[in-house]
Specification:
- With 352 residues, this protein is an alpha/beta fold.
- Helix content is 44%, strand content 14%.
- It has 15 helices and twelve strands.
- The strands form three sheets. A seven-stranded parallel β-sheet has the order 3-2-1-4-5-7-10, sandwiched between helices. A three-stranded mixed β-sheet has the order 8-9-11. The chain has a two-stranded parallel ribbon with strand order 6-12.
- Helix 5 links the parallel strand 4 and strand 5.
- Helix 2 packs across helix 12, helix 4 crosses helix 5 and helix 12 packs across helix 15.
């Protein structure tokens, strides 16, 4: 959960924070450092404009923060370790950005961190605590518990009115095509089969399915207004190095996804825009789950380009087999999200 282990990773974190959140270096040592302790309601009371992003220093978290800032929101970013907090102490924090450290394992800690925020974006950005590539079965269990804690904390924080949860497209696509009356369309109503994920050892997909289902259960029990976004593989500048665990974990089973026509990607900034759009429409037309992607890897040259960015042989993605457009068993549909975003754009155009 946001572990920073090497000097290169520390410098990269600082660079990303400065670039995306515009944090100037401190000019003297008399400027008060921001605190990771208890929050003062008077210090952090920014009215209806304050929202919170968990894993705010992650690849997606930074993009969401940047998008929200551009839309005029004040953003509290949740950092999950003391190391992350220490890495930001050399920078003056823009008045619209409030870094706070909170543990996803402690509900009371999260409630305190969410206090005064009107909404929470839970980006669920997990890294491998062992410093290894990949996503283990135990990481999935940690993610489920953390997601439960975040949603419960949202429901128990008086100021929080809604939550936007980042899930994954892999929580939708892993299904048994041999089942009778099986729909070939994969959309917001689709869920990956947990048993199939276990059989294939798809721990990332299993973790996302179980975490999202737990979130929906708690949101319905507590009456919390929530939406979830299920993105394809998140790409963007230097995405593999900045989001390596999720990238490697997402691509487990890549050859099968490619063969079935369901290997999809989404640019991180487009995904961040989708989060903001869904959040702003939650009190109007937005509801439920949304699939988000902007490209389906359908050709060998697309697979080769993706593999090159990750540093893998193209055969690890496309398997070297020719693509058969006539035999694809599945079809991805993000129509629900596209309709919402086009309606929002039309509304904004009418207002101007």
């Amino acid at each position: 959960m946001g572990f920073v282990e090497t000097e290169e990773e520390i410098e990269e974190l600082k660079r990303m924070i400065v670039a995306c959140v515009h944090l100037p270096r401190r000019k003297d040592h008399h400027h008060r450092h921001f605190q990771a302790s208890r929050l003062s309601s008077s210090e952090f009371d920014l009215g209806d404009n304050l929202v919170c992003v968990t894993s705010g220093a992650s690849f997606l978290g930074i993009a969401i923060v940047n998008t929200l800032l551009s839309r005029g929101y004040s953003v509290r970013i949740i950092l999950h370790t003391q190391e992350e907090m220490e890495n930001l102490r050399d920078f003056e924090i823009n008045g619209s950005v409030q870094p706070v450290m909170a543990k996803l394992t402690e509900i009371d800690n999260l409630i305190e961190a969410f206090q005064g925020c009107r909404a929470v974006f839970h980006t669920a950005a997990f890294t491998d605590p062992a410093g290894l590539s990949g996503y283990t079965k135990s990481m999935g269990e940690v993610e489920v518990k953390a997601c439960e804690n975040v949603i419960r904390a949202c429901s128990r924080t008086a100021s929080v009115r809604s939550c936007v949860l980042t899930s994954s497209l892999v929580s939708c696509i892993w299904r048994d095509a041999t089942i009778e009356d099986f729909s070939p369309v994969i959309n917001h109503d689709s869920w990956s089969d947990e048993s199939l994920c276990i059989d294939k050892k798809l721990w990332y997909a299993l973790g996302k399915v179980k975490a999202e289902k737990a979130a929906w259960r708690i949101a319905k029990e507590t009456g919390l207004k929530m939406a979830s976004i299920c993105p394809g593989l998140i790409t963007g500048p230097d995405f593999f190095h900045r989001n390596s665990t999720a990238t490697i974990a997402y691509l487990k089973g890549a050859q099968e996804m490619y063969k079935d026509g369901i290997l999809a990607t989404v640019d991180v900034m487009k995904l961040a825009e989708a989060h903001a759009c869904v959040f702003e429409a939650l009190n109007k037309t937005a509801f439920g789950r949304y699939i988000c992607f902007d490209q389906v890897i359908e050709r060998e040259d697309d697979a080769e380009n993706l593999a090159k960015q990750i540093g893998l042989p193209a055969s690890k993605i496309c398997g070297g087999d020719p693509y058969n457009y006539t035999a694809l068993p599945f079809h991805l549909s993000n129509k629900k999200l596209l309709n919402l975003m086009s309606t929002t754009l039309a509304s904004c155009a009418n207002q101007t």
